[in-house]
Design goal:
The protein is α/β, with parallel strands linked by helices. Among the domains are: 33 residues; 205 residues, 3-Layer(aba) Sandwich (Rossmann fold), CATH 3.40.50.1700; 114 residues, Immunoglobulin-like, CATH 2.60.40.10. The chain has 23 helices and 29 strands. Helix 21 links the parallel strand 16 and strand 17. Helix 9 packs parallel to helix 11 and helix 20 runs parallel beside helix 21. The radius of gyration is 28 Å and the shape is globular. The N and C termini lie far apart (77 Å). Bound molecules: beta-D-glucopyranose. The site of beta-D-glucopyranose has 6 residues, from loops.
Amino acid sequence: MAIKDFYLGNKPYAIISFFFLVTYTVIAQKEIEVPISQRVFELMAKMTLEEKIGQMNQYNGFWNVTGPSPKDGNAKEKYDHLAKGWVGSMLNVRGAEEVRAVQQVAVEQSRLGIPLIIGFDLIHGYKTISPIPLAESASWDLEAIKNSAAIGAKEAAAAGINWTFAPMVDITRDARWGRVMEGAGEDPYLGSLIAAARVSGFQGSDLSNPNTVAACAKHFAAYGFAESGRDYNTVDIGENTLHNIVLPPFKAATDAGVKTFMNSFNDLNGIPATADKHLQRDILKGDWGFEGFIVSDWGSLKEMIDHGYARDKHDAGSLGLNAGSDMDMESYIYISELQSLLKEGKITIAQIDDAVRRILTVKYELGLFDDPYKYCNVEREQSISGSQEIREGVLDMARKSMVLLKNDQSLLPLKKEGQKIALIGPLAADKNSPLGNWRIAAENNSAVSVLEGMQAYKGNSIIHEQGVRLVNSIPAFHEEVSINNTDKCGFKAAKKAAKKADIVVMVLGEYGFQSGEGRSRTKLGLPGFQQELLEEIYKINPNIVLVLMNGRPLVLNWADEHLPAILETWHLGTESGNAIAEVLYGDYNPSGKLPMSFPRSVGQMPLYYNYKSTGRPGADGADAGSVFWSHYGDEKNTPLYPFGYGLSYTEFEYSDITLSANEFTKGGTIKASVTISNIGKVKGKETVQLYIKDHFASSTRPVRELKGFEMVELEAGASKKVSFEISEELLKFYSASQIWEAEPGRFSLFIGTNSSTKRKADFQLN
Ligand code: BGC
């Protein structure tokens, strides 16, 4: 009525109404403008100690939440805790309806109605699967990687998720470790840029946008350095490696505004990371000013007992909180021990309050207090899940992630017509392996296989034979598949197919679950009978294109020596077969570059390009008469394919490097340039890479380190000048004085197509 009167020109009413309108607007605005810190403060003033500790407690999904509620056992207890407000977060509850059901218990039954934050391992896509992170990293395309995280976030957020346990930013140098598939590879510079891209992809510019989720940098820290590449194993590294190699991607994630961190299972230099106060309180929350919260890894508080570090659960709770772990994932320790620890004076209320403040702040930032059901709209879920936009996004990422390892005699791209193709291998028609390891919400067998992708090109005839079968040792459990090593009955048909074919495409590698958590391996060849099959087929028809599917670097010496063409496709996700067929047929020109070195032998592990020189460096091919240099008697030191390596269907030529000056003083810069030309026949992309070597320093420095890269796309015959600015910032490292600084002296820079480039120029920092 008031508004109507106002417009009808009824003066007294109009004035009163106007007054009310203004007052209402001011109050409403004030409501909105109450800063989050104030809202957290006011809420915490109402919370009991139990409720505060509850916020620090995270449970795994524990019953079919949309069915009848649990009556007994552990699930009943968890349900009661939820209803009392003693649970701050749940993980692995998914789907708009299921999340709404648990959220309802927390919000509508508990005294203060504090919403849950819902965590999930959104590692490479939710239902629509994108390439495994190692594959995405091979694109070196930061925009594409960011977009891939953003579309994953959109699909997951529509299914109730608002927090992903990603990105995993662990640098790793050991392909035996199964989790190399989950990270960005071996280099801290590339790894830092990718960490930041993923964080901003997941979180967007506004965390309260219902298409974004809070990100989590994990595993803090040094999990990727597990001894012998055996998962969960001890890590023993010095300060130099910790600061120069391990920590930079975590710092980059922090600077990109990541909302949460996860600590890790491993013991780092004698202290389980979960209880590492120096890492969590001094470095992360202190020096780096991280304002978000830290979640433990799954049961990692409890595992400190097995590490022989915590006496019992009680002790583990005290060690964890004192060290700065804010939330307990599935150890049930904070919920059972923190109250008594507080009474005993082993922890402080300030520590609890700090943890709760951090957790509630992220919940407010997500907008969960304004609408706890904002991620729980079933119609929205249905319209976003598997949508065209998301499928196109994962296809785009898949194309960009492949690395062409060999292409002699230009066997690739394949002719589109008139060819008889034998498509052979256990993974050729497999619709499960391409989904990789972290695909909890995806339907099994939902990827486009290579066979399907190739069949979409109608001009050739394709005969498909498995050659080696996939064997499911526990039929009900789709993860327990292996590649057959007991019977060769498929060899005969595969050989027959190869004999008749113009070209053989062999799809070999690792089954999707052969890499990932708990999937360490001591052998890095092709598993099962695949190598034998490959060699048998080669004797019949050597015109082989090897299409590899794997989650880690493999040893490929035989293939490299004998085969004309090798394409690394990793595990590329839902659109796998379509992307692979586009590359095989030349509709997409591959441009990926390896984010990890590929070894010649498993005995070279750990293997990485930015190693340090020994006092006896020698060189592969050095004088065979002497053995007293750092080398192996039976293998080269160098990798088979170096970090940064990858070919194209066209060819690029680099000019010599020109420097704008060959010295500069701190605060100044110089410019290093090359001209790159496409001297092949088709358009293509090349990632121009800059490496720098610091010749002498207060602590020893790597033989070279990646310090810049630029992706250029050139038409056949075209050229472009690419320049890098060299600044003091670029030359900084964690020095013997335990600070990041650039030390004056002599440097070399290298610009080229991969980390082994010899194109070099020298300069001096004064
Ligand atoms: C892994 C984490 C993961 C967590 C929750 C742990 O086993 O190490 O990376 O986020 O489980 O699924």
